[in-house]
Amino acid sequence: MTNEPRRLFILDTNVLMHDPMALFHFEEHDIFLPMTVLEELDAGKKGMSEVSRNVRETNRLIDQIISDATFEDIKIGLSLERIHPKGGTDFQHLGKLYFETEPLIAQLPTHLPSHKADNHILQTGLALKEQYPQRNVTLVTKDINMRIKSSAVGLHSEDYYNDRVLEDADLLYSGWEILPDNFFETHGSSMKSWLDNGRTFYELDVEHDCKWYPNQALISANDSGFSAIVREVQDGKAILEYMHDFTNPNSTVWGINARNAEQNIAMNYLMDPDIDFVSLLGVAGTGKTLLTLAAALEQTLDQNIYNEIIMTRTTIPVGEDIGFLPGTEEEKMTPWMGALMDNLEVLTKADGHTDWEKETTQQLLNKRIKIKSMNFMRGRTFLKKFIILDEAQNLTPKQMKTLVTRAGEGTKVVCLGNIGQIDSPYLTETTTGLTYIVDRFKSWNHSAHITLQQGERSRLAEFASDNL
Predict the structure, then answer these.
(1) What is the mean pLDDT of residues 297-323?
(2) Distance from C-alpha of 173 to C-alpha of 281, rounded to nearest angstrom
(3) 8-158 architecture in CATH?
(4) Interacting residues of 33 by C-beta distance below 8 A, sequence separation 6+
(5) What is the pLDDT of residues 150-162, one digit of tens each?
(6) Distant-in-sequence, close-in-space partners of 306: CB < 8 Å, separation ≥ 6
(7) What are the domain boundaries of the chain?
(8) Are 8 and 128 in contact (CB under 8 A)?
(9) Alpha-carbon gap, residue 389 to 395, rounded angstroms
(10) Residue ranges of the PIN domain (predicted)?
(11) CA 114 – CA 35 distance, rounded (Å)
(12) CA pair distance 375, 49, nearest whole angstrom
């Protein structure tokens, strides 16, 4: 290796298992892959899991980089610009990729067994640090314990940050904004209003750097009760639509009303056929599932906008795994769909109806509501479906893309989740696919998002949520 001022990053196996494109996310700096990492990639390439697919993709990329290279070329480092995975110029001016072509030995503390893979990577990192003292040698790993051990032996380490959507989850777009008290005094003189098919619209002047997003909810801070949805912001003009009031007892959706302003916003999004994607974030008891199912049943069974409801979620257990389950795909998924089934029972209760009427209703629902496993979504296309992705905080960005791109013409996708309750050991609030899609979709005219905060489950649940 030549003595260059560029940083030298040693990639741990878990980084490439998480993101094969990590090879191209270190700008002009160089990357080093220890032989142990290549061995672990070889051991993890079999299977149909997301990790196995990522390993195979990593192997394909490395194979393309080293194709036609001689051993001497590999020893002096291969330019990462040899391939362009996206077919463009995004990967120009990159550094080099180095492999462990000769033994790199460094002294580890005697209490660390050198035969363990992690410790061999640490040993390689320390040897590189000694060999190139003028370079900043950094181990990049998503393993917290590995970073702790690295610091303990004197090797600088960092987490893999490229998959972070935001620096802090508190910066995530909330989907709504409270208007100041003097909003109407400030904009009243330039405001225009009109009716179109029973819908009320307003046009007003705004600053050119206005931060409103399409379908963002605006709620007045005073007692006027004004609430609207931003439909368009362009050339210093904003068009708002007056929000339908689903808190009104006469505006029920499959027999339920919104109980607060946040739920009213969510119901407006869920009942709008022009919005193809809706994401609802919120803690337990805020009504995400109940509102979504009510809107789905209303638009599928009564309005015939969609011909079927598809419900799915990730299958990550909170406690010990219950093992393999017998039966069909739908029967296997039933234990994971308890929350959806509980809410469906609330919506379909038939007090005063005969057993025959109840049974007929249940048979109708069984025909129009399908429970699917995410494992069999790849390659499918859903037309005119209302798709509900529950517990979406446990999806990676790549899994989220795979699922949402299944939507065909006339399909609506609703993602439900709580980023404060992630069960996957490899995701955080800033790297989950739910955070990723909320941030990426906020500027699209056919998507909407709302973060629900006010609990409506019961006084017991609300007290437990606040105090436990």
Answers:
(1) 74
(2) 11
(3) 3-Layer(aba) Sandwich (3.40)
(4) 10, 11, 62, 97, 98, 99, 100
(5) 999 999 999 888 8
(6) 296, 299, 300, 384, 385, 386, 410, 411, 412
(7) 8-158, 169-242, 264-467
(8) yes
(9) 10
(10) 7-148
(11) 14
(12) 9
Count of residues making up the chain? 468
d(CA 261, CA 280): 14
Q: How far apart are CA 65 and CA 93, in angstroms?
A: 15
Asked if 277 and 405 touch (Cβ cutoff 8 Å), the reply is: no
Beta bridge partners of 384: none
Return d(Cα 108, Cα 112) in angstroms, integer: 7
**CB distance 15 to 158 below 8 Å:** no
Distance set, CA 355 to CA 352, 358, 360, 368 (Å):
9, 5, 9, 20
Find, among 446, 448, 444, 436, the residue nearest to 265 by Cα. Answer: 448
Fold of 264-467: Rossmann fold (3.40.50)
* Two tokens, residue 49: 């899991």
Judged by phi (left if over 0) then psi (alpha if -120 to 50, else beta), residue 183 lies in alpha
Give 248-272 pLDDT, tens digit per residue: 999 999 888 999 999 999 999 999 9
Per-residue model confidence (pLDDT) at position 170: 77
- Spell out the SS3 assignment of 160-191: CCCCCCCCCHHHCCCCEEEECCCHHHHHHHHC
Please give the C-alpha separations between residue 261 and each of 155, 242, 244, in angstroms, as whole numbers: 52, 14, 11
d(CA 415, CA 338): 17
Q: Where are the alpha helices (DSSP H) in 93-227?
A: 117-131, 144-152, 183-187
Question: Are 8-158 and 264-467 equal in CATH topology?
Answer: yes
pTM (2 d.p.): 0.76
d(CA 50, CA 69): 30
- With 0-12 / 13-18 / 19 or more C-beta atoms within 10 angstroms meaning exposed / middle / buried, residue 51 is middle
